[in-house]
Amino acid sequence: MKTLLYVAGMMLLGLVLVTWSQPVSAADAKGKKEQTVQNPQDELAAPSDVAAPPADAKKTASGLAYKVLRTGKGTQHPKATDKVEVHYTGWTTDGKMFDSSVARKETIVFPLNGVIKGWTEGVQLMVPGEKSRFWIPAALAYGEQPRGGAPGGMLVFDIELIAIK
């Protein structure tokens, strides 16, 4: 059963598509700096804090750590039963990218309760347009020694919530 859930989760993550981040206008950012993508490879490179969450990252009771990279719009957060449209890049803590919708240049829509627990919990903290980095402990991902080629240990994801469907 765990193998089937893993395969289904990897299939969902493997289908993720990407749309490039749009610059945040000064009005939207409410005083925050605009962020633009200068080079698509910048979004694929492992972040400097991939090995461990920085001191300013927030941490939930489950052990999920996260940091908002770009604020979104509105106040609506997805529920676990919602479908969401996202794009993302995932790395192991040694900086190896193992999956990326950015690389595929497509976004993906999936039921939020159909992926790893760390995604279900973390994406519910977001609002549309927000981009966050998550440090997902093994217990909320695929475990320390997963089967079938899944990455083990803590995983790091940059996730942009495009829309709640």
Describe the structure in your own words.
With 165 residues, the protein is an alpha+beta fold. The chain has a single domain, classed as Chitinase A, domain 3 (Roll). It has 4 helices and 7 strands. Strands 1, 2, 3, 4, 5, 6 and 7 form a 7-stranded antiparallel β-sheet that branches. A hairpin with a 5-residue loop joins strand 1 and strand 2 (65-70). The chain is globular, with a radius of gyration of 15 Å. The relative contact order is 0.24. Mean pLDDT is 82; it is low at 1-39.
CATH class wording: Alpha Beta
In CATH, the architecture is: Roll
N-to-C order of helices and strands? HHEEEEHEHEE
Task: Name the shape in a single word.
Answer: globular
Strand content: 25-35%
Mean pLDDT: 82
Number of strands: 7
**Largest sheet composition:** 7 strands, antiparallel
- Helix tally? 4
Cα Rg: 15 Å
How many individual domains?
Answer: 1
Helicity range: 10-25%
CATH topology: Chitinase A, domain 3
Stretches with pLDDT under 50, minimum 5 residues: 1-39
Please report the distance between the alpha carbons of the first and last residues.
28 Å
Secondary structure class reads alpha+beta
